[in-house]
Design a protein that fits this description.
2 copies of one chain form a homodimer. Helix content of chain A is 41%, strand content 18%. Chain A has one domain (2-216): 3-Layer(aba) Sandwich (Rossmann fold), CATH 3.40.50.300. The first copy, chain A, has a 7-stranded parallel β-sheet, sandwiched between helices. By secondary structure, chain A is an alpha/beta fold. Chains A and B meet through helix 1 and helix 5 of A and helix 1 and helix 5 of B.
Chain lengths: 217, 217
C-alpha cells in the first residue's frame, strides 16, 4: 500500500517533468537544476554566474525555498527575472511546483534558466523537474567524505562545482579525494573548483556554460 | 488520500517514539538527537564530546546514514559502543529505525546516548525518535541566513552549536546574527559557539552536558 502511493507520486512527477521538458525544448532553452546542502553557495554562484553571462544571454531563475523570499530578493538585484517557490515544508522541488512557477516567467525571452533547489543533499536528486541537467555544489567545508555518504546526488549530476576553495588551507578536506570519490560514482561528471568569494575558477565554469547555451541554439 | 497516509506514518512514528522514550526513562538515560546539514560537524563533535565525557559517563552512539559505515567506524575508534543505521535512501531517521538499532546496544550499561541523524537541515526535525531533546549544529560556513530559511529545525532544537568558528575570519557570516535570528524563532535555545578543529568552546558545552546527565540520575 505504502509502496504503491510512492510509485504514483513518482509517476505523476515524471509525467509533469516531461511536459516541462517539452516546453523548454520548444523554446531552445537550457535549464539547469542546481542542488546542494544548505549554505554551500547556490545563490552566490548564481549571482556571480548571472553577472558574467547576462551581457550575452537572457537568464531567468526559479528560486526554491521552504519559506522566505530572501534568495529571490538577492537574485532580483542582478536584474534578471526571478520567481520564488515556497515549498511550505517540503524538502525538495517537484515538477509540478516548477510548472506553477513557469506561469510567472516569459520563456520566449530566455536562453538559460536556473532552478535553484531547496538546500538538501538527499531528496532533490530523486525528482526530475524537466531540466537539461542537474548541477551540484559541494563546499569544501563539508568535507571530502560526502560522495561516500550521499552518492545519489553525485550520480545524478552532470556537473560538480567544488566551492569555497579559498577555505582549503583552513579545512581538513582534500579536493583530490572529492574528485576521485565523485568520479568513481559518476565517471561522466564535469568538475570545477571555484570560490564565489574570491572569484577563482568561475571563468572556466562560465566559459563551459556559454558553450552549453550556444549548442542549444 | 495522500494526506491520510502521511498522517498514519506520523502517528505510527509517534507511537514508537513513545515506546523508545519509556525505555530510555526506565534506564535514566539521557538521549540526544543530533541534527545538522551534511558536513556541519556532527561526527567530529561526537568524537570530541565522547573523549571529554567517557571518563565520567558511559556513552553510546546510534549512527544514521543513508549508506556506508564510515561514521560508525570513526566513532568506534573512541571505544564506545556504536550501532550504524543505514536508511537505504531515506533522508531522516524515524523512531522504528532507532528501535531496531537499540537491539544492538545494552542500555543498562549507559548514561548518555547520542543518535546522530542523517545530514539534512529539513526532514529530521519532523520526526521524534524518543529523545530527551534535539541538538543541532550549524557551521558558520553555511552562512547566517539559515534560521530564516530552515526555521523548523531551530524551532525544534533545545541546543544550537555554532561550529567551525575558527573559519569566521574567512566567511561572510555574522554569528551574532545567527543567534539573534535563532532566538527569535526559539527563545529557549541554549547556544554554544565551538570549533571542533581548535577545541574552542567545547569545554563549556561539555560542562553543560555533564549537568544534564547528572540531573537525569
Amino acid at each position: 500500500m505504502k509502496i504503491s502511493v510512492v510509485k504514483n507520486i513518482m509517476e505523476a512527477n515524471q509525467r509533469i517533468a516531461e511536459e516541462n521538458r517539452r516546453r523548454f525544448s520548444e523554446k531552445k532553452l537550457l535549464v539547469i537544476n542546481l542542488m546542494s546542502s544548505p549554505g554551500a553557495g547556490k545563490t552566490s554562484l548564481l549571482e556571480k554566474t548571472i553577472q558574467s553571462m547576462k551581457a550575452d544571454f537572457r537568464v531567468g531563475v526559479v528560486e526554491g525555498d521552504i519559506q522566505s523570499t530572501y534568495d529571490a530578493e538577492r537574485i532580483g538585484q542582478t536584474g534578471v527575472p526571478v520567481v520564488q517557490i515556497n515549498t511550505g515544508g517540503a524538502c525538495h522541488l517537484d515538477s509540478n511546483m516548477v510548472q506553477e512557477a513557469l506561469k510567472g516567467l516569459d520563456l520566449t525571452q530566455m536562453d538559460l534558466l536556473f532552478i535553484e533547489n531547496v538546500g538538501n543533499l538527499v531528496c532533490p536528486a530523486e525528482f526530475k523537474l524537466g531540466e537539461d541537467f542537474k548541477a551540484m555544489i559541494l563546499s569544501v567545508a563539508e568535507g571530502d567524505d560526502k560522495p561516500l555518504k550521499y552518492p545519489l546526488m553525485f550520480h545524478e549530476s552532470r556537473v560538480l562545482l567544488i566551492n569555497k576553495i579559498d577555505l582549503l588551507p583552513f579545512c581538513d578536506c582534500d579536493p583530490d579525494l572529492i574528485e576521485e570519490r565523485a568520479l568513481k560514482i559518476n565517471p561522466q561528471l564535469t568538475i570545477f573548483r571555484v570560490s564565489c568569494r574570491t572569484g577563482e575558477g568561475l571563468d572556466r565554469w562560465a566559459d563551459w556554460l556559454r558553450n552549453q547555451v550556444k549548442q542549444r541554439k
